[in-house]
Amino acid sequence: MTADRRIEEITNRIRERSAPTREPYLARIRAKGAEGPKRSTLTCGNLAHGFAACGPVDKDRLMGDQTANLGIITAYNDMLSAHQPFERFPELIRDAAREVGATAQVAGGVPAMCDGVTQGQAGMELSLFSRDVIALSAAVGLSHDMFDAAVYLGVCDKIVPGLAIAALSFGHLPAIFVPAGPMTSGLPNDEKSRIRQLYAEGKVGRDELLKAESASYHGPGTCTFYGTANSNQMLMEIMGLHTPGSSFINPNTPLRDALTKEATRRALSITALGNEYTPAGLVVDERAVVNGVVGLHATGGSTNHTLHLVAIAAAAGIKLTWQDISDLSDITPLLARVYPNGLADVNHFHAAGGMGFLIRELLGRGLLHDDVRTAWGTGLNAYAIEASLAADGVSVVRHPAPKESGDPKVLTTADKPFSSNGGLRILTGNLGKAVIKVSAVKPENRFVEAPAKIFNDQNELKVAFDAGELDKDFVAVVRFQGPKSNGMPELHKLTPLLGVLQDRGRKVALVTDGRMSGASGKVPAAIHVTPEAKAEGPISKIRDGDMVRLDGENGTLEILVDADEFASREPMKIDLSHYEVGLGRELFAPFRAHVGLAEDGASIFAA
């Protein structure tokens, strides 16, 4: 299948822009791939340390150099629902490896924090930085150079991007990402949101709120709304790093286990020891990156990926820009409505046809590159399927994706999209650059021109709300929330409050150098504003009462102040020491000092 001319044009400009960094990257991974793992040339003492804890059969295999050894990088912990199912995976993977005469070892663990637990708390200030810590941690595990391929066990917000950065840094190794799957459906997300808003208004108490939250987040697996975690799974599949059809199968089911074992066998079959050597650095090329961005737009995915996809691409020597992301949004139809961009959850999306249906529709319109190299083989069309359990109860069979959606209100065709574009846009103007997700914002709320109300912390806005000071039209400017200030936390405590005011008929919007993520909702929010306030960006010069215009339709973010007068203002500086200590924040001072711009991925690797 041939890609649409516009897709080809954007891909080609990314390729041309990236050539000075992509070509040295490819040369590096090819050289390392030709060397192979050092296992066979380690000293006897080195190698003995590497398999000391193994059983006799695995030791015998690891003493030679012709048996593939699979490295497992795991984000398992048993506090977080999305990662708790991974407790069983290493044994499943080791068993599957032994069945084909190979070995598998847990190379290392990486931290996995939950934004849901830390939301609105000081720990959230470590969240974005944890992505780069995860990449570093995975690199430590793989640095033993004992492995012919790797599987990556991770699900949530920063974990998968961090693992992807590591996988591409070790791009000579084949890589397959193995998800745990979403939890079964609980309390509908719109009902959960309704209770949150009632709580914000003081109409229900904490007991009722906790009951609703517990009914929504109720078991093992990923949260079921379409936030960053589930956007991650979509990305890994559409970029060819999953086995086909594996993204949204519930945990602890026979099919989930069968897919995990299958992923193991596939990873072992694509090492340099065989005839299908497929290093991760060749799977993730400019075409795969464009496919990922298109998938993000077609599903109304997380705004966090305007940071993560840039950083992931950079790890493969590819220079992706916010403008590329915005231009791809303009030509990608919205085909899925999953909360907060609809009432359904990811289980409903999967039941309606899921990734296979979506990929087939996009391929049919030339909006994806089919001529890509994936971990499964050549061609993305192999992912236009649905997976099920075979009659033997232990293996996987695949069928063509259904021709019709199981629920057109959740998943539609490219001929009848919910919107002609993806709804993720870049705002530009005299306040810098920002990201906005308008797919969940009603058209009448996408333009706001109102006086600025300045807050230097999200808790300040809540105090003003509780005091009744915000029942008016205004643009909430919440600044000093960028990566250099405090790690760029998500600011979801603001969503119910601003939603209440919007429901009262007030014209409200948010402008911030912080994040809102995949749960960005019905209130227009210009997020990731760059340059940030700590870097003395224009957002640091806004004053209470300044007129601010946010135009989500035309992609502009402006302060309506005389240009000369605005330029003459001194940037606001505030004491940020309260962000610098407690809950480990003091350990992250080097990250805050050296992190790069939001539009460059807010990464310490691209500072």
UniProtKB/TrEMBL annotation:
Family matches, as InterPro entries: 6-phosphgluc_deHydtase, Dihydro-acid_dehy_C, DiOHA_6PGluconate_deHydtase_CS, ILV_EDD_C, ILV_EDD_N, IlvD/EDD_N
UniProt keyword list: 4Fe-4S, Carbohydrate metabolism, Gluconate utilization, Iron, Iron-sulfur, Lyase, Metal-binding
Co-factor note (free text): Binds 1 [4Fe-4S] cluster.
Coiled coil: none
Family annotation (PROSITE patterns): ILVD_EDD_1, ILVD_EDD_2
Entries under Pfam families matching the protein: ILV_EDD_C, ILVD_EDD_N
Enzyme class: lyase
Species the sequence originates in: Fulvimarina manganoxydans
PANTHER family cross-referenced by the UniProt entry: D-XYLONATE DEHYDRATASE, PHOSPHOGLUCONATE DEHYDRATASE
Gene3D superfamilies reported for this sequence: IlvD/EDD C-terminal domain-like
GO biological process terms, semicolon-separated: D-gluconate metabolic process; Entner-Doudoroff pathway through 6-phosphogluconate
Residues noted as binding [4Fe-4S] cluster in the record, renumbered to the chain: C156, C223
Annotated metabolic or biological route of this protein: Carbohydrate metabolism; Entner-Doudoroff pathway
Record-level GO cellular component terms: cytosol
Entry's EC annotation: 4.2.1.12
Function: Catalyzes the dehydration of 6-phospho-D-gluconate to 2-dehydro-3-deoxy-6-phospho-D-gluconate.
Catalytic activities: 6-phospho-D-gluconate = 2-dehydro-3-deoxy-6-phospho-D-gluconate + H2O
MF terms (GO), sorted A to Z: 4 iron, 4 sulfur cluster binding; metal ion binding; phosphogluconate dehydratase activity
This protein's name: Phosphogluconate dehydratase
Family: Belongs to the IlvD/Edd family.
UniProt domain Dihydroxy-acid/6-phosphogluconate dehydratase N-terminal: residue ranges: 69-381
Record-linked SUPFAM superfamilies: IlvD/EDD N-terminal domain-like, LeuD/IlvD-like
Gene label: edd
All copies of domain Dihydroxy-acid/6-phosphogluconate dehydratase C-terminal, residue ranges: 409-602
Cofactor field: [4Fe-4S] cluster
